[in-house]
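S.,

Sequence below, as promised.
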Amino acid sequence: MQGGKKGSLHVMISVSHLRKRFGRIRAVDGVSFEVGTGEAVALWGANGAGKTTIIRCVLGVVRFDGRISVGGHDVLRRGKSARHLLGYVPQELAFHDEMRAGAAIRLVASLRATPLADAMTALERVGLEGCAGRRVRELSGGMKQRLALALALLADPPAILLDEPTSNLDRSGRDDVVRMLVELKRAGKTVLFASHRPEEVAALADRVLVLERGRIVDNRSPDRLGAAGPSFRTMRLRVPHAQNDAAATALRAEGLPVENNGHGLCVNVAHGAKAGPIRILVGAGIDVDDFELLPLSDAHDQEILP
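The prediction came back faster than expected:
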């Protein structure tokens, strides 16, 4: 079942008057948009703008006010039918490090009632043929994201949701993942993704929804993304080595994408909210030894330098 039409495209994802609060925090405040079949739309904004919350609402994993439909199926009333049309790629794979890639594929295939032969083909589709016997901990960051993409493509869903799919990858890994996503889009997949990388958005998106404080403030083409100037800066925080994992977990729990490049934890911060990550870590009982704002050239290049 398909929704209405957006121009010459059928509407695959429709979001109408979406609102979501977490206690007193208004994470999403009256957001409405549509994504046409075969279209790629990027959610762009600083940490806390509402990108991840919108994706979680489309997935139907949190309650919300408003209406969301996928392929004409209401996410709250017909969630199973809606999710059958969606594949999801998170920032990081959630499987245990000791699980083998093949076992991960078989587990998800059983949950999605996908034939095993099709499941193993998914590994080949993302360039992981021959890796079924390797443990998750043995895979590089790029290979883990390829595995996450293979899992998302099980049952061949027409739409894919991605939350900062390359945030923890080096340049080579990022380029590989973006190339695969571009190929999927050319094959007709609908893509809705959150990103903080201008080059990633430029390569993949047809349109960019610019978010600020839970609201859409602009709907622009990717080539106009730089016109508004940077809405955030990259902050590098140094904490005691033994607390690195705990610090990253605390920041991610608050919706902040984190990169650990061996020289500190890097997060994006909005103008006027630079104390936020420090406040989160102090509240979690984690010492902050030092911090710095990276130059804009480094932040936009996304190759975080020591």
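The radius of gyration is 19 Å.

Coffee later?
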